[in-house]
Amino acid sequence: MRRGLASLPDTFRKRAKVLKANLRTFLKKAQWILSSHPYETDQPNSIIQVESLKWKESFDRLLENTDGLLTFRAFLVSEYSEENIDFYLACEDYKSIKSPDKLKMKAKDIYEEFIQRDAPREVNIDQKTRDFTKSNLEECKRMCFDIAQLEVYTLMEKDCYPRFLRSATFKERKKSQSCLHEGKNLLSCRVFQFGESQQD
Fold first, then answer.
1. 141 pLDDT band (50/70/90 cuts)?
2. Is a pLDDT exceeding 90 seen at residue 184?
């Protein structure tokens, strides 16, 4: 039968208090490590698994999820093709600009970085789309990159996305989520058990 700290001699009570303080410090550090992990989330493991399954439903589902988007971009980085998703996101950002002057500047930046021949991060689009996009820059409408954006989107959906779902990046992502939440559950269990022991 456990009788708690009150029944122990003074020496043991002092030692138990030190251990208790050390344990609390450890638990705080462990929780901080878990919460600062780049893949950390407050959602239950069951929800995480559902979200990962949604990534497999469609490419749109993947891009709609911030965590999924970041994981997909990490995969593209490993394949040296992150310019595709960066161009797609730059186009989305471009369409949200309201100022005509900023719109014109942004259009020029996107064209020089991704579209023109020998651009530092040139995307893989056909010459007809490249010429059409260049002609659209004269008016700088919000839709001037739509054809090029659609072409890059289709490339990612038909080529990059299927390979992503088969990749180690995707598999390790799901594994890391599972391990993190198992760690959090174990940590919560230890805290609960320790609290119970102090109440006896």
1. confident
2. no
CA gap 168, 81 in Å, rounded:
17
pTM of the model: 0.65
**Residue 112 CA, distance from chain mean position:** 28
Helix (H) or strand (E) holding 55: helix 45-55
Q: What is the pLDDT of residue 172?
A: 81
Report the distance separating Cα 91 and Cα 146, nearest Å: 8
Token readout for 190 is 């230890």
Q: Measure the CA–CA gap between 100 and 166, rounded to whole angstroms.
A: 43
Give 94: exposed, middle or buried? Use CB within 10 Å, 0-12, 13-18, 19+: buried
Q: What type of residue is 25?
A: T
